[in-house]
Amino acid sequence: MEPGAEPEVIVVIDDDYAMRLSCIEILSRSGYRVEAFEDGARGLDAVAADKPALILVDLKMPGLSGLEVIARLHEINPIMTVVVITGYATIGTAVEAMNAGAHDVLPKPFSPDELRLVVQRGLERRRLQIEAHRADLEREVQRRRFVTFVTHQLKTPLVAVHQFLDLLQRLGEEPDAPAKRAEWLQRCLVRTEELQRLIEDWLTLAKLEGGALGRHRTRVDLKPLTSNLLAGYQALAASRQVSLNAELPDTPCPVHGDPICLTVLLDNLVANAIQYNRPGGRVCVRATCPPGEVVVTVQDTGAGIPREALPFLFEEFYRVRQPGRVSPEGTGLGLHICRRIVSEMGGTIEVESTEGAGSTFRVRLPAYADAPSTTTSAG
Amino acid sequence: MAATKARVGTKTILVIDDDEDFRTAVRVVLEGEGYAVVAADSGRSGLDSLKRCTPDLVILDVMMETMTEGYGVSEALKLSGEFEAFQNTPVIMVSSIQESPDELFPRAPETDMIRPTSYLTKPLDIPKFLELVRTLLRG
Questions:
Q1: Backbone angles phi, psi at A31, to 5 degrees
Q2: Cβ contact (<8 Å) for A163 and B3?
Q3: What are phi and psi of A366, to 5 degrees?
Q4: What ipTM score was computed for the predicted complex, to two decimals?
Q5: Which residues contact B43 (CB under 8 A, 6 or more apart)?
Q6: Of A203, A284, A344, B59, which one's alpha carbon is 20 to 30 angstroms from that of A174?
Q7: Is the pTM of this model over 0.80?
Q8: Closest CA to A273 of A362, A358, A363, A365
Q9: Cα separation, A201 vs A333, whole angstroms
Q10: How many C-alpha atoms does B23 have within 13 Å on its Cβ side?
Q11: Beta A104-107 vs A81-86: how paired, if at all?
Q12: Which residues of chain B neighbour A155 with C-beta distances below 8 Å?
């Protein structure tokens, strides 16, 4: 027992006077506070009032039997160690007592050392149980906070849409009504798109975490994957007046990975590079194949990322605050998904950024030949 | 909807919310009723704006950059000497999450100190919201 700590309370319930007396004497000397009762009813009252750490209970007593006492003890407090002391110890009674909720059985007669050992063991068990219970509670608090947070993220765009629809319904015939109508409808569209992206990203993340995505590994050449992806983004880039180029080697860039995941990864990086760019800016995607790996960099000429934001950039739901930028910004999940995918594929992702000049994201993935060939689904 | 009716002696309402569209919507509703609106996109900038304006009412979002940022603002208004002048300014706290301050802050005395005057769930029911605004500004 820790010095200065309150002594732990042990309740003894036994109709045998001599037994109660020896338990009190032995356990008091070991530093416990012992309360002894001659029948189940009084014992239970004391347990309810004093919240003991451990209860020693006889099986055969007049009035409530030991087994009945054990059942009621667990109703009072599920985290309480119960040790049965019995003069009729057979395998059968032990099993019966354990089934009723006892944690240990000590056959009578016992030596002081045997009693102390059983009590110590019981208290240690209780300590572990309390620790586990605390950890469970902490996990539950974290989980609830996270659920609240995700709910908030999903509801925010929905609230904006609702609020605008309500305003649209109340809009009268004033001269600026058509302009307002057009603006608010446009915002509704933008926010529903945001909500859709958020749900899609959330689903991607859930699939990655659940293993439904990322399992199907095969040889993927990043060269055609990158060219195809960029072809699909030319129109968006042009509309933003951003030039989108690729510098790819003549040879293939094969990695061992899930083609869908790799597409999601590059898609996120390229979309960000275009989205957070400036008119007249550039996005360049490069791939190189140094020995044993494939390195893909996505470089933009956007606003860059503030230094203080860099450590959190890949965290779930982290968004870089950019004053003056019209919402919605990203979902806050894209780069988190990227990091998950890259680590799933055994690679790394890093970012360099200069505020006002742009950012470069660098992904390193093990080349196909070097990757462990645990799956046979290649080809 | 009525056109803007702002005039001399107009009541000023400070709206602190990190969602631009929500700020816009609240501004449209309040300006339509003739109130002057000052909007801020974070707790910090909301408190900063108190150096330049003297609102008669504050509309305050709970979850902004952090999950309890609104309560930080409320605490500053109620307890910090810097904002003493606004100690009794009514505060309507708004959030899309129905979570009472008592759940967020289990210790009662602290909760009492930073409890908003009223609490509304987003999306705002506009007639009820305006009724509450009128009541608080009258009181």
A1: 95, 5
A2: no
A3: -65, 135
A4: 0.88
A5: B16, B64, B65, B69, B70, B72, B73
A6: B59
A7: no
A8: A358
A9: 6
A10: 20
A11: parallel
A12: 96-97, 122
